[in-house]
Specification:
Keywords: Chaperone, Hydrolase, Nucleotide-binding. The chain has two domains: 194 residues, Rossmann fold (3-Layer(aba) Sandwich); 140 residues, Hypothetical Protein Yjia, Chain: A,domain 2, CATH 3.30.1220.10. The protein has 14 helices and 15 strands. The two termini are 21 Å apart. By secondary structure, it is α/β, with parallel strands linked by helices. The strands form two sheets. Strands 3-4-5-2-6-1-7-8-9 form a nine-stranded mixed β-sheet. Helix 6 crosses helix 7 and helix 12 packs antiparallel against helix 13. Bound molecules: guanosine-5'-triphosphate.
Length: 375
Amino acid sequence: MTGELPDEPAWKAPHGIPVSILTGFLGAGKTTLLNRLIGDPWFSDAALIINEFGDVGIDHLLVESSGDGVIELSDGCLCCTVRGELVDTLADLMDRMQTGRIRPFSRVVIETTGLADPVPVMQSVIGHPALGQSYRLEGLVTVVDAVNGLATLDAHAEARRQVAVADTLVVSKAELAGSGDALVERLEALNPLARIVYAADAGVTAEKLFDTGAYDPVAHSLDVARWMSSRSDHDHHHGHHHHDVNRHDAHIRSDSLVFEKPIAPKALAMFLDLLRSAHGPNLLRMKGIVKLSDDPSRPLVLHAVQSLMSEPVRLPAWPEGAAQETRLVIIARDMPKGFIAELFGAFVDEPGIGRPDRDALTDNPLVIPGMPSRR
Ligand SMILES: Nc1nc2c(ncn2[C@@H]2O[C@H](COP(=O)(O)OP(=O)(O)OP(=O)(O)O)[C@@H](O)[C@H]2O)c(=O)[nH]1
């Protein structure tokens, strides 16, 4: 779970119960959205973790309490509140399921409070040694209010982070806001990885919202092709000018790269180690699909939140319609322009003028102790 690359190029299916996180600033419309979706059959084998029962207004759905604060809704969804640390709640749910005290669930949705920084929540899922065996991070959904969204993004760093690290952005209250173009443009600039949907769109079902297919792009219809294509290409061709549109967003930047030649697994491992040790705290989100030299027909999918990387998944084949080349998109704070391409180039390409060379980088005395450099 700490991001070791698999030694064997075997197909590796994702494991663990998928955990989706729903966030959004105060009053953005998280509860309204959950209320609409909770009747979906998708929720019947889910466990929903919320902050307070009152928040979700599910009273009409309550049937029975299985004791100690886990309740079962009439459609089967299990519901509980966070008590103490989130990791304890997740561990407790798993324990109860395994000991037969609550009915089995096959997915988890966590609604965070409006002011929460979602990164520690995500890290508590993928960074926890024991929980990481039982759960995997499926994705982060952030609700943004079309009426107040721009002002909220201006005023609150937490709101910008919620947008910057999301897999999916849901625009609520669009019917009250006229053209939401300025908001959408701002969201795209803050996070070119995310797909943007409208809360009022009837096509937005629980399954479509929460199952990102992040780790299984062959079975799902193509999260990878989407996040690696349209808007990151746009980003390429147009440089980064729209990152400077708003001074508040100036230090959150995305950087992406495309690389055609297959990459040696070792070179990739070194690149990732160095990226995380040198840039971990500022790295908000990374997604990538990598063409490895051991078997270029089976790409590796990478996901990271800050310095924590989910276990990489080796796909059996390239997603249909996706170009068969390595693509990495990184969203980071205070990242020098072109940093990723420079660093990547040092590991996979010939070192060039103005590009740090591999030996110099791996000898860097500033590399965090304990981070293997695998020379
Ligand atoms: N018109 C309209 N109103 C909405 C929409 N979504 C939410 N609202 C309203 O916005 C207000 C806040 O919505 P909530 O769903 O409670 O927001 P929340 O994000 O759960 O709020 P907190 O729990 O306080 O963080 C409520 O009055 C909702 O009725 C929407 O899509 N359209």
